[in-house]
Design goal:
The structure is a single chain. By secondary structure, this protein is mainly alpha-helical. It has one domain: Growth Hormone, Chain: A, CATH 1.20.1250. It has 12 helices and no strands.
Length: 399
C-alpha cells in the first residue's frame, strides 16, 4: 500500500504575516539609519570631516562581530528550541547599546560600542529569522519574501525621518530609532505564541550517498548568488552618501536617505506581486534571476553616469532590483535548507552573505576609488550581479 504524501503545514493567517513582516522591518530600522546616515555623520563630526578609512574600520569590525554572533545565537536558539525569549533579550540589549553609540567621544570608543551593539542586534535578528522558517510553510514562502521587502523600506524611511531637517534634535535621533524598533518588533513576538508548525520542525534524518546531491548544490548556489549581489548592495549601502557627494559636493545627507527610502518603498508592491506569482506557479527562482540581471543593468548605468540625474536613475533601477532579489531570496532560502533542527545555525551561515561584504567592500572601495573612481567599482559590481543571475538560472527549473 502506498503511503499518502505528508500534508502541507497549515498556512499562517494574514494578520500574523503582517505582524511578522513588521517585526522584520523593526530589525532593519534598528541598523539602517545608523549605518547609512548617522554613523558616517557622527564620524565626520569626530574627525572634522568625512573619513572613508575610519568608516571602513568601524564597518569591518562591526561586520566581524555580526557574523560570529548570528551563527552563535542561531545555534543557541536551535538547542533551546525556542526563539521568542532570545528576540526579546536582543531587543532590549540592542536598544541600550544603540543609544550609547550616539554618546561615543572617539572613533575607538565608537568601534567598541558598534561591535557590542552588533552582537546584541544579532541576538534579536538571528532567532527572528529562524522563527520564520518555524512558522511559514513552503506555500507561503513567496508572499513571505514579498512582505519582507517592507523591512528595508521601513528601515530607509526611518533614516529619512530621523534626519529630516528640524524634525528631531540630533541628540534624540537614536532614542527615536530605539522606540520605533520596539514598536515594530514586540507585537509579533507577544502575539505569536503557538504559531510554530510542528511539521516544519521535524528533524531531518542524516543522508548518505552522493555528497553533491541536488539539494546540496542548490544550497551552495543560493549562498553564492546572494553573496555576489550583497557585495554590490553592501558597497552602495555604506558609501551612497559619499558617492553622491562626489558628483554634487553640496548634496544633503537627508537627500540620500530620501532616495534610498523612495526606491525601497517602490520595491514592496513589486516584491509582493512577484512572490505571489512564484507561489502560484511553483517557480521560486525565476524572479531572482530577473532581478539579479536588472541589478547589473543598473550598476552599468551608474558606472557610465556623467550627471547626478543619470546617476540617480541608475541607482533607482539597481536599488529596486536588489531589494526584490534580497527579500525573495531570504524566504526561498528557508525552502532549501535541509535540516530544521539546525535552521538557526544554517541561517547564520547564510547571514555571512550579508556580513562578509561589509568586511571586504570598505577596503576594496578604499583601494579602487582613489585611483580609478567609483565607475570602476560599479563595473565590478555589475559583473558580480550578472554572475549571480547566471548561477541561479543554471538550476531555476530544478529548484
Amino acid at each position: 500500500m502506498i503511503s499518502p504524501l505528508p500534508a502541507e503545514p497549515a498556512r499562517q493567517p494574514r494578520w500574523f504575516l503582517v505582524l511578522f513582516a513588521l517585526a522584520a522591518a523593526g530589525g532593519a530600522v534598528g541598523y539602517v539609519p545608523l549605518l547609512t546616515v548617522l554613523l558616517p555623520q557622527r564620524i565626520a563630526e569626530l574627525q572634522g570631516g568625512e573619513d572613508v578609512a575610519a568608516l571602513a574600520q568601524v564597518t569591518f569590525l562591526g561586520a566581524v562581530m555580526a557574523s560570529l554572533a548570528n551563527i552563535g545565537v542561531g545555534m543557541l536558539s536551535d538547542r533551546s528550541a525556542v526563539r521568542r525569549p532570545w528576540i526579546i533579550a536582543g531587543l532590549i540589549a540592542s536598544n541600550v547599546l544603540l543609544i550609547a553609540v550616539g554618546d561615543a567621544r572617539s572613533v575607538t570608543e565608537m568601534i567598541v560600542l558598534v561591535m557590542a551593539w552588533q552582537v546584541a542586534l544579532n541576538l534579536m535578528l538571528a532567532p527572528l529569522t529562524a522563527w520564520a522558517g518555524d512558522c511559514f510553510p513552503d506555500s507561503q514562502k513567496g508572499v513571505l519574501g514579498g512582505a519582507l521587502a517592507l523591512a528595508p523600506a521601513l528601515g530607509a524611511l526611518s533614516g529619512s525621518l530621523v534626519t529630516y531637517a528640524g524634525l528631531i534634535p540630533p541628540d534624540a535621533r537614536l532614542v527615536v530609532v530605539a522606540g520605533l524598533v520596539t514598536a515594530l518588533v514586540l507585537p509579533a513576538v507577544l502575539l505569536g505564541k503557538g504559531k510554530v508548525r510542528a511539521e516544519l520542525m521535524e528533524p531531518a534524518a542524516a543522508e548518505t550517498g552522493d555528497p553533491l546531491r541536488l539539494r546540496d548544490r542548490v544550497v551552495v548556489r543560493m549562498w553564492g548568488a546572494r553573496l555576489l549581489v550583497q557585495v554590490a548592495e553592501g558597497g552602495m549601502f555604506a558609501f551612497l552618501l559619499y558617492w553622491l557627494r562626489s558628483l554634487a559636493p553640496e548634496y544633503p545627507e537627508n537627500g540620500a536617505a530620501n532616495i534610498f527610502s523612495a526606491v525601497l518603498v517602490c520595491a514592496v508592491p513589486l516584491s509582493l506581486l512577484l512572490g505571489r506569482w512564484s507561489d502560484r506557479h511553483g517557480r521560486p527562482i525565476q524572479p531572482l534571476v530577473a532581478s539579479a540581471a536588472l541589478c547589473a543593468v543598473g550598476m552599468l548605468v551608474m558606472a557610465a553616469a556623467g550627471s547626478l540625474e543619470t546617476a540617480i536613475a541608475g541607482y533607482v533601477l539597481f536599488a529596486i532590483a536588489a531589494a526584490i532579489f534580497l527579500s525573495l531570496h531570504g524566504s526561498q532560502t528557508l525552502r532549501v535548507l535541509p535540516a530544521p533542527q539546525h535552521r538557526g545555525r544554517d541561517l547564520g551561515l547564510f547571514n555571512l552573505t550579508n556580513t562578509v561584504p561589509g568586511m571586504v567592500m570598505p577596503w576594496l572601495t578604499v583601494l579602487l576609488v582613489p585611483s580609478f573612481g567609483y565607475s570602476a567599482l560599479f563595473a565590478v559590481f555589475a559583473l558580480l550581479s550578472l554572475l549571480s543571475a547566471v548561477l541561479l538560472a543554471s538550476f531555476a527549473r530544478q529548484a
